[in-house]
Specification:
50% of the residues lie in helices and 18% in strands. By secondary structure, it is an alpha/beta fold. Bound molecules: uridine-5'-diphosphate (UDP) and magnesium ion.
Length: 319
């Protein structure tokens, strides 16, 4: 019987792999409950998959989920969660050891005290100033505009109870923002402050493009603000133009000197075509999301599943 599963997504992590395997093995050897590790190879192009297969054959506490291609971090974690067997709960960590796996003991204690979600809150970050600033702004913006409370400065590093994982597995949304889904599920949640370590080896696998995609998912999936803002902007514009109309009429009647303002007209056209384009873009964002959802594709495709040192054949890969 497995109590706790640890999910680790991996994308081109050959450099940190042996260190990661060692830390996780030590943790599993030392904790008083039984653990498994579910590692997801997210279509790496380096030796990560081979290393993972070797490890799964050597130590049966490791499960390997090898995806058919790179699906992105959030879907890799989703695939991992779908293959966990821990009956008490699941911890999610990054593969680069920025999230210390040793915290499983503290998280497990909180889980036993009745919390369903224990999310790690970063006390510090070791990234560049620009990235830290971008994160700072983003988390605060997200908190302001999201429909419900998503905690500030907490990423995917967390422990989830079995029922939360089951609920998450039941959520079919395609563009996944796990930390938002986690908050949405509810139950008793608590934060746990920790110092985020530096990446132990290799480079970040989150390009700016991927980061922006994640940020957009966070905003569009968990907030009505962008659409609402269009309506408000529309009202504001109408109000402004009515006021301007009144002003012109007064000038016309009182002073009879309305200037034939070409500049003002041009300005108005440019300004409001900009507003219209942005508004169309915002609506397009939602339409795109609806389109992605109704296609109803599986969230990820598994190429190979290694469990208990054996390869398990799978019929299909939907959740
Ligand atoms: N990752 C993944 N698929 C991707 C990108 C990243 O599975 O397409 C994994 C990566 O291997 C790591 C975790 O997600 O285990 C976090 O990525 P990274 O450390 O590069 O992000 P950062 O900490 O720089 O935000
Ligand atoms: Mg990292």
């Amino acid at each position: 019987m497995i109590d706790i599963s640890i999910v680790v997504p991996l994308y081109n992590e050959e450099q940190v792999f042996s260190q990661l395997a060692k830390r996780l093995t030590d943790v599993m050897d030392s904790v008083p409950f039984s653990c498994e590790v579910v590692m997801v190879n997210d279509g790496s192009s380096d030796k990560t998959a081979d290393l993972l297969e070797d490890l799964c054959h050597k130590d049966t506490r490791f499960t390997g989920v090898l995806l058919s291609r790179n699906h992105g971090h959030q879907l890799a974690v989703t695939a991992g969660l779908a293959h966990t067997r821990g009956r008490q709960g699941v911890m999610v960590i990054d593969g680069d050891l920025q999230d210390p796996p040793e915290l499983v003991t503290e998280f497990h204690n909180l889980l036993m005290r009745g919390y369903d979600v224990i999310y790690a809150v970063r006390k510090n970050r070791k990234e560049s100033v620009i990235k830290r600033f971008a994160y700072w702004i983003y988390y605060r913006l997200q908190k302001k505009i999201s429909n419900f409370n998503i905690p500030i400065d907490s990423g995917d590093f967390s422990m989830l109870s079995r029922r939360v994982v089951d609920h998450m597995n039941d959520m079919p949304e395609q563009s996944r923002y796990l930390r938002g889904m986690r908050s949405w599920i509810g139950f008793k949640q608590t934060g746990y402050e920790y110092n985020r370590d530096e990446r132990q080896a290799g480079e970040t696998k989150y390009s700016w493009k991927k980061l922006f995609e994640l940020a957009f998912n966070g905003i569009f999936n968990f907030s009505d603000f962008p659409v609402r803002v269009i309506t408000r902007l529309g009202f504001f514009t109408i109000l402004l133009s009515l006021l301007y109309l009144c002003y012109i009429i007064v000038r016309k009647v009182v002073f009879d000197d309305v200037p034939q303002g070409f500049t003002a007209t041009l300005m108005a056209i440019i300004l409001f075509s900009g507003v219209q384009l942005i508004s169309l873009g915002l609506i397009g964002e939602y339409v795109l999301r609806i389109y992605n959802q109704v296609r109803n594709r599986p969230l990820f495709i598994v190429d190979k599943l290694l469990q208990e040192g054996k390869e398990i054949k799978k019929q299909n890969s939907t959740l």
